[in-house]
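Q: My labmate handed me this sequence with no annotations at all. I'd like to see what the chain might look like in three dimensions before we decide whether it's worth expressing. Could you predict it?
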Amino acid sequence: MTVRITDYDHFKNVFEEKKSQPVILFFTASWCGPCQHVYPEVETLSAEHLDRLTFFKIDVDVDENEELVNQYDINSMPTFVLVVDGEVKEQFSGANVEKLRQLVANALA
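A: Here is what I predict for the chain of 109 residues:
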């Protein structure tokens, strides 16, 4: 399952716990139709790879997440950011399920 991030401190704490595995940051918004469209696939992929990969769901509408939005230079939703060993490896925007699956495959390679 995805980890819903509530604020920057929560992000830092959970990220520290999960740093031994790849993390995919899913920047989303409640008003974003494409985000809602791709979310079931995010949940499916998260459940399938629970022991090897973690998805963080970050709502850009929440003021407490503004620091993360700025840190990762998020300008459109949905945006997916693959972080491995604390470094951004890949990033893309859009609700492209095939690109998301490829991002997961790259994370697990």
